[in-house]
Structures are given as structure tokens and as C-alpha cells.
Amino acid sequence: MSSGKRETSRPQVGSSQTPEQSSVSAGGARIPAIGFGTWKLRGDACAAAVADALAAGYRHIDTAAVYDNEEAVGEGLRRSGVPRERVFVVTKVWPDNIGEGALQRSAEQSLRRLGLADVDLLLIHWPNPRIPLAESIGALNDARSRGLARHIGVSNFGAALLRDACRLSAAPIVADQCEYHPRIDQSETLAACREEGVAFVSYSPLAKRGVLGDAAVVRAAGRHGRTPAQIVLRWHVQQGCVAIPKSADPGRIRENLSVFDFALDADEMAAISAPPAKSQPG
Ligand SMILES: NC(=O)c1ccc[n+]([C@@H]2O[C@H](COP(=O)([O-])OP(=O)(O)OC[C@H]3O[C@@H](n4cnc5c(N)ncnc54)[C@H](OP(=O)(O)O)[C@@H]3O)[C@@H](O)[C@H]2O)c1
Question: In this predicted structure, what is the pLDDT of residue 2?
Fold first, then answer.
């Protein structure tokens, strides 16, 4: 059962950081604060983008069984020449497969496709109300005990479900990966993560470009001489979140990692957090 002793430390924010030194710690995992998202990247384009991201300094790669790109992600890792132990690799189990036995098989299949002995973090991709949570969390813990994953976590779990998962899990739930950007209110899940010592990982952190024209973002970009994407990613990191932007473009891949040598002030953070239309997580 969870001990309540887990701790999440906010990334050290400051001008002397390198991307590799900027991370969020939770439940014994040290998660690089900017990861590389790979949804919709496939085949050689995916392998090339992953290798390029690693060459640019990313040390955290996010994939999932359902992305149909785990082979390409593994190929990109090998092509990069970056040693395996220096990269935090995350994959996810699709909700159809989170029952006892199926979850472990899905993890094994992911490892075969990735060409890896284990992943750093194995996530339940979405909750499945048709499968008891205790069964899924038990299977996730078994996958970890069997060495398929160094750490375990969840994705798309709201505050109440996250708390249940933490209560049911023997090993720490180290992360909850959820959609988050300035147009979505995740205050409840963020608070639950802080209380439970779970790292909050923001997916679609740029709202798929949807927030890059927001007035407060554009204003801060002008003031800091940064791009809107860098401002939004900095906004995530300054809240203690991990963010996993996806890009297929070499210039934007690098741009998205260069967010550790400036800081937004409290007014800028608040203005970015308060866009005209904010939605609840779906
Ligand atoms: N757990 C889940 O259920 C879940 C769900 C969705 C996503 N995710 C993860 O989160 C990752 C990121 O989310 P996402 O791909 O939905 O959205 P995103 O990262 O918010 O946005 C990606 C889009 O923004 C563009 N972009 C990237 N950097 C940019 C920049 N500096 N300036 C302007 N445009 C930029 C990309 O185009 P270019 O490629 O042309 O640069 C792409 O069209 C996914 O790849 C996946 O790994 C997880």
C-alpha cells in the first residue's frame, strides 16, 4: 500500500541549468522536465525525429503501444548512440489490455518492439471502468516486480481515481500524464498529484499549437525574446510539471528544449493561466 512518504520536487529553475539537469523527482524516479512526444510520428520519420531529439539533448521519450511507433522509437534510440541508461523511456498500455495478464503481455510486447529490456516508466494509458482498478494496479505492480518497468504510473486519471490508484499500489505511482495547457483547468488533478507525491506530466502541452496566439503568451514572448512555444513550455516547467511537446521539425525540436535559461514572473504566469475560455478536462 502507498506510504504517503513519496515526494515530488519541483524542477530547479534557474539560469545555470542544462536540459539534462532539469527534472522532476517522484517516487524514486527522476523524470527529465521536457520530454519528447511521439504521437503521430511513424516509421523512419519517427526514428529520425527521436534520434534528432536525443542529439539535441532530450533524455525523455514518450510513446505508447497504441501509437504504432515503438519499433521506430527503439530504432531512433539506437541510431542516436546515446546510452540506454541515460534516456528515460515511457510507454503506455491501452485500456483494453489493463486486466491481469493482458497488461503484463502488453508490456512485454512493447519491450520487444522497442528492443529494450525494460522501460523507465509504464503507464496505464486511460482508465477502464469495466476492469476493477485494483486488478489493473496489481498487474502494473507485477510488471514492475518482474523488471519490465523501473517505475509505474497512470495517464488520464482525474484526482479521485489517482488517489485510489495510489492507495491500491504497493509501489509508488510516480506520474499522472494528463492533457494540460493554458486553456484547460487541471487544478484538482495538480493538487492531488502534489498531495500524493506524483509527478504531473502535461501532454498536448502546446494545445497542438492552439495557445501560441494567446495575447499573454505573445506578450511574454516579446518581452523575453522567446517564441510563444518556449513561453508556454516554461509556464509548465515553472509549475513543477513535466511537459512532452511533439515536433517533427529539427528547429522546433531544439526550440522546445531551450526553456531553462529564463523565467516568467508571477504576473506573466497568472496572465498565461487566465485565457478567455477555459475548459474542464474531458
Ligand atoms: N497520454 C495521452 O493520452 C496522450 C494524449 C495525447 C498526447 N500525448 C503525448 O503528448 C505528446 C504531445 O502532445 P501532442 O502531440 O498532442 O500536442 P503538442 O505537443 O501540444 O503539439 C504538437 C503540435 O505542435 C507543433 N509544434 C511543436 N513545437 C512547436 C513550436 N515550437 N512552434 C510551433 N508549433 C510547434 C507540432 O508541429 P511540428 O511537428 O510540425 O513541429 C504539432 O503540430 C504526444 O506526442 C504524446 O507523446 C499523450
Answer: 39
pTM exceeding the 0.85 threshold for the entire prediction: yes
Structure confidence by residue, pLDDT tens digits, 14-52? 333 565 469 999 999 999 999 999 999 999 999 999 999
Mutate to test the pocket of ligand 1, among 209, 227, 230 (most ligand atoms within 8 A of CB): 209
Mean pLDDT over the full length of the chain = 93
> Is residue 67 annotated as part of the catalytic site, yes or no?
yes
Q: Tell me, letter by letter, the H, E, C secondary structure of 172-197.
A: CEEEEEEECCCCECCHHHHHHHHHHC
CATH of 15-273 among 3.50.50.60, 3.40.50.1440, 3.40.1190.20, 3.20.20.100: 3.20.20.100
Residue minimizing CA distance to atom 29 of ligand 1: 252
- Percentage, residues of the chain above pLDDT 90: 89
Q: Which atom of ligand 1 is nearest to the CA of 253?
A: 28
Q: Of 110, 241, 109, which is closest to residue 175 (Cα–Cα)?
A: 241
In this predicted structure, the answer to whether residue 177 has a pLDDT above a threshold of 90 is yes
Catalytic residue (one of 58, 67, 180, 203):
67
Task: Give me the torsion for CA of 273, 274, 278, 280, rounded to 10°.
Answer: 50
State the pLDDT at residue 276. 58
User: CA angle 159-67-149, nearest 5°?
Assistant: 65
> Which residue ranges have their beta carbon within 6 Å of ligand 1?
37-39, 62, 125, 155-156, 177, 203-209, 212, 227, 229, 244-249, 252, 255-256
Domain boundaries, the chain: 15-273
For ligand 1, atom 4, the nearest C-alpha belongs to 203
